[in-house]
Input
Amino acid sequence: MIRVTRAAATAAALLALAAVAPGPAFAGPAAAGPSAASAGNRPGDGGLPEGWRVGGSGADRQLVWTSPGPVPAGDARVEFHLGDRLLGRPVPSPDGRTFRLPLGGTRLTEGARLRVTAAGRRLDAAAPARAAAERPGVPSAVPPPPLPVNAVDPGVPGRFATVTGRYDLAPVRLPGFAEPVEMRAVVVGPAGAPGKRPVALFLHGRHSTCYAPGTEDVRLMWPCEAGTVPIPSHEGYLRAQRLLASQGYVTVSVSANGVNGQDHLAEDGGAQARSSLVRLHLARWAQWSAHRSTAPAAVRAVPPADLSRVLLVGHSRGGEGVNRAAIDSLTPPPAAQDGHHGPVRWTIRGTVPIGPTIFGHNPAPDVPSMTVLPGCDGDVSDLQGQNFVDGTRGVSSGTALHSAVYMVGANHNFFNSEWTPGQAQAPALDDFSSEDGTDPVCSPGTATRLTAEQQQAAGATYVAAAARLFVGGDDRVRPLLDGTGRRAPSAGPARVLAHAVGAHRTPVVLPDPTLRVSAGGRLCAQVDPDAARSCLSPEEGGASPHFAYWDASPEPGRDAVALRWERPGTPVAVRPARAVSLAGADALALRLIVPPNTTGTLLDVSVTDATGRRADLGRTRVDGLPGSGRTASYWAREVRVPLSAARRSGLDLRRITAVSLTPRAGAGRAWLMDAWGWRPGTPVVRPAPLARVDIGRLTVKEGDSGTRTYRVPVTVSGRGGGQVRLFLPRPDTGEVTSRLVAVRPGRHDIDVPVEVRGNTRYGYDATRDAFVKAVRGTVVGSHRGGVTALNDDAMPTLRLTPVADDVSEGAALGWRLTLSDAADADITGEVSFLAPAGGPELSTADVDRAWLEERLGGLPDPAVPLSEASRLGLYLAVTVPAGQTTAELSVPTGRDGVVEPAEFLRARLTTYDGSWQPVPGPEFTGTVRDAA
Output
């Protein structure tokens, strides 16, 4: 949870390396600016905002943000931004307060607009207030009528009693992680059920890993240190496990604390490690199925597992993990990246990501999925898991159903009872928060907010619905998931809405640059900083799960149709580049977004065939979701209009050339995500032959001389051929360029050469990144990688000499920092004040007031010695710019008019090594004498 309330086709030319750090923490270059050679001030280079500073030198130079309080471990990635540019993803310290990002050659100038976000939510300050016209309306006090009841209720317990047990096997080693990862699980199965039983495996998300019993002390580390014990996050889904077990499923929920405590080291946020862990458990179950006597007692106590029928359920980063496990089970990843090696003796029938991350934007297109989007998610608050649905369109055959289930009033944590206050063994909290505690949709006690019990009941019901449809093949459950608009009584008062793509849908309108849109509408970009191009401009406020930011902005390939009207009656026609077919469909299904808290948006829908004949299909009504300024509520509702009128009119449904929407209410707005020919049913899914693309990372030493050319490691495996979009961030500006690349196993279609020039001067590590996204006929495993050239030259030695270390009050103390050699990187040190060995110490009353206030943000009252002021945050940063060898450090003093003896200053210069461990430098002293 996150809660802080304070303020490639072959390149034509070789790509020069950028001064950017690799891996999970990386920085993109900012606009160059002047770099002062004088002493820095609080809190960082060039007068950075409160809480920020820059420390270290050269390859070890880092941007540091310290939160006023601990930031609880969550699933959304913490990101540093400079203006609208993503600088990178920092590494947290164990205390949860300090975050460090390697800066490389990035320069931060006076007034730098730095921000800390997680899933789009501001962490370092309150979000700016919106103008009244930009705020979502107030949710209606009258709830909408409930949806019709579905024919079957998957939340009703089955006929079997349940049995619970646990196993704890020897830990395993996973690539890239220093510490072994536990193989621990809780098993719940049906007592006495005949034959082999289908399997549901649960994987929890990223949460604190350890706690000290009887205290509020929680940690994110692995292994747990003395005095703390593991948080049993894997025990948090017992309600859903027991429901499924009563219905005949063998369920297993696995622990992933060892991944959570180390996934900051992984470029993909731990997705591959989680996939490996899931498949290692499935491999053990396959062994136990063949040799039951070797199984742990907890496994022998439940019926044998049928591994040809497996459902994977993943919460938060666990959702991304089970998605990767589904991909890896169909097409294995590169062996060096994978922790599981061996045959795949199971079949994944479906996945259920709950409040998931999808950092790779790489959903498994041929494995059915149901993604739960919690409307009050305070962790993965941008609801980026919507891409598990939207990102599958056009990639493969489209027969797998991909459903998004929007659960109004649900937060992120309460799906797991071990993350829920009052239920958890370890300290836990509600992840949703607001500055004043009075959010109209999500604050506890509001009409729309679910209690923990209500949320867990609804969650278990919909997990059971997915199991019944994907594994059990019961099509009667489909209307709960596919946008038909039905409810399950077992979900209680929860308002759960759904839409879907895939199954028996055929594409009619998939917005892209070839689509023609008439007046009253426009093709808009889902992710674009240009308000004129963007579907939902940041200037307007509001957020949409469909438009969640990825690694590039603007991002080509993600479009929608924006409609705006001032009065009813003017149709907006959208025309695909080629005629499309509605033959065999029962209805035209549209996914339409309207603003939150609006009701009664009426649209007449018509279609036109290739002869120009038009048929009015009917009128549809779309209501907005309950929303506030803190929720991602611009979410598409699925509406359907029957095609019976078109058939009666004699339209050629095999050649439809336009779909028209005519507003029939007052002024309004809407966004068309897509349109489909729809008919009921759930087809059998047969995975298509897809090419798989994985981007790796090559780390090399720069060398002392000469030029070497390396290539970004790219693996293309699988079967068949297809297309990906290759993204290349420019090292000098941060701009991301992209191109479409056709790929096929056995060829080197993606070729990104990187030139590394050797030298003997200390400098920054340098990185060139590349990332990919599937477009057609492909699937992506590891989406991001590159080449990193490590600085292999020693940092120059530092010498500090006095310039004016014995002065009268009112003058400035001064010292000079001299390097043994010039460097290709800024060399930065920090100065901390110590108590002098003897005599009175210089205090905050003895230095220049303006100088002190600028660094502390205020003046201590009463005055304190400078060594105590260091504990209040007073320190100095001194930087020798690249190419220079000296810098000046000064402490201006003030006249206090008091007759007093000489006062003394003692300080130490500190630098940092590559692990951000302090390296104490020379101590120095100064004397200030009475001006009289």
Notes: Residues 224 and 530 are 47 Å apart (CA to CA). The first strand starts at residue 15 and ends at 16. The mean pLDDT is 89. The first helix runs from residue 238 to 246.
